[in-house]
Amino acid sequence: MRSNAVSPADELGDESRQFALLLDSVTDYAIYMLDPRGYIRTWNRGGSRIKGYDAADVIGTHFSRFYTARDVEQGLPLRNLETARQDGRFEAEAWRARKDGSRFRASVVIDPIFKDDQLLGYAKVTRDITERYKAERRLQEAQQALMQAQKMEAIGKLTLGLAHDFNNLLTVVVNSLDLIDARTRDEGIGRYVLTAMRAAERGVLLTRQLLTFGSGQTLALETTDLNELLRENIELLQRAAGDGIEVRLALADEPLVADIDRAQFEAAVLNLVSNSRDAILPSPGIIAINLSCRQTRDPASSHAGTRPFLTVEVVDDGPGIPAEHHQRVFEPFFTTKEVGQGSGLGLSQVFGFASQSGGFVHLRSEPGQGTAVTIHLPAREH
Ligand SMILES: Nc1ncnc2c1ncn2[C@@H]1O[C@H](COP(=O)(O)OP(=O)(O)O)[C@@H](O)[C@H]1O
Ligand SMILES: [Mg+2]
After folding, report:
1. pLDDT range class, residue 83, cuts 50, 70, 90
2. Model confidence at 262, in pLDDT bands (50, 70, 90)?
3. DSSP sequence for 125-183
4. What is the 298 CA–ligand 2 centroid distance (Å)?
5. 249 pLDDT more than 90
6. β-pairing, 285-296 with 245-250?
7. What is the DSSP letter of 316?
8. Does ligand 1 come within 6 angstroms of the Cβ of 280?
9. Span 188-216, average pLDDT
């Protein structure tokens, strides 16, 4: 008896039609064929979804249109075909362009198609891995920030212990000098005592900075509008910068109210301005101090959400900081200045102040492009 039932294979048609249907139903991959010179011969729905072009847009055109202008300029599209032909496969991860001009991270495979040693064309498979790429990058950045934070915490603890011991020693030295001073009438000895006293006082100052870095100073919090405080300080900052350097203050439009230790804040801004001055000199230059409120997240905190931070950005047009120093400049005693010129405690004070205030510091700098250091302080909750 003959059956009238149609097998699914019949409905799908012959093998090549089945294959075309299969390819077209794939939407997560752009799968298409190129002729030996790189002109597009077939297209699937994945291609439309990922790259934004319909079959009619692209069939018959050259596949180099998916490359960024720079890659085309460097002859990359044809080079990749050549690699595929010679090595039997080309594989890469790179940025590619969509129809609307936006870029996406692509995982690309090109396979040559031979028949009896004759190159018929290429099979090209492209996958959009932008999300995965971004997630990996975010994870990497978070891990780096965490490692950096742990390192700074370890250095902070070490510094704190050292600073406390030092403080105790200096107290003994200063007290003894006081006693010597009270008992001697010898002017010569008096002069030595004075010199020793000055050195000890400078030591006390240094240990205080170390205590700040190690978050060992008690902050004297006061509700403060940063706009007002900086306006009051601008003359002092201009004087610190010197004659050839202009300090430009750009206040925020809104009040920037935070609970901060005013003295520590002033010291931090002064440290940043001094660094900018040192970097700019001997040429003339500009130091800009910009205030604003930004919605952002603390890179070292595990909270994923953003919060409002009051930001004080100090920007200079100096020579910038080389990338290999970026992680180290906040460490206590890291300095590139000559002995006597720098203590290496300026940025560590800035770092310590910001962290102890619940904020963080961000550094942006490239050699030849100047430097921007931004203190982020949590905005006062209403
Ligand atoms: N604005 C800047 N431009 C260029 N380099 C800078 C700047 N600020 C800081 N630096 C670099 O960071 C180092 C550490 O700064 P800091 O902690 O203030 O210590 P110090 O100023 O005593 O060297 C400096 O020696 C310098 O190399
Ligand atoms: Mg400094």
Report:
1. very high
2. very high
3. EEEE-HHHHHHHHHHHHHHHHHHHHHHHHHHHHHHHHHHHHHHHHHHHHHHHHHHHHHH
4. 24
5. yes
6. parallel
7. E
8. no
9. 87
Of 285-289, 301-305, 318-322, least confident by mean pLDDT is 301-305
Model pLDDT, residue 234 = 96
Whether ligand 1 lies within 6 angstroms of the CB of 209 is answered as no
Strand ranges inside the chain, DSSP E:
29-34, 90-97, 103-115, 118-128, 221-225, 245-250, 257-261, 285-296, 307-316, 360-365, 371-378
| Ligand 1 mean position, distance from CA 272 (Å) | 8
pLDDT at 5 over 60: no
CA angle 149, 154, 158 (to 5 degrees): 145
Please check the confidence at residue 2 and state whether its pLDDT lies above 80.
Answer: no
- The model's confidence at residue 127, banded by pLDDT at 50, 70 and 90, is very high
Reduce the DSSP state of residue 208 to 3 states and report it.
helix
Q: What are the sequence ranges of the domains in the chain?
A: 8-128, 131-217, 218-382
Number of other CB atoms surrounding residue 180 within 10 Å: 15
pLDDT at residue 50 greater than cutoff 50: yes
Say which CATH superfamily domain 8-128 falls into.
Answer: PAS domain (3.30.450.20)
**Is the beta carbon of 107 within 6 A of some atom in ligand 1?**
no
Identify whether the C-beta of residue 93 lies closer than 8 Å to the C-beta of residue 106: yes
Q: Does domain 218-382 have CATH number 3.30.565.10?
A: yes
Query: Cβ(63)–Cβ(106) under 8 Å?
Result: no
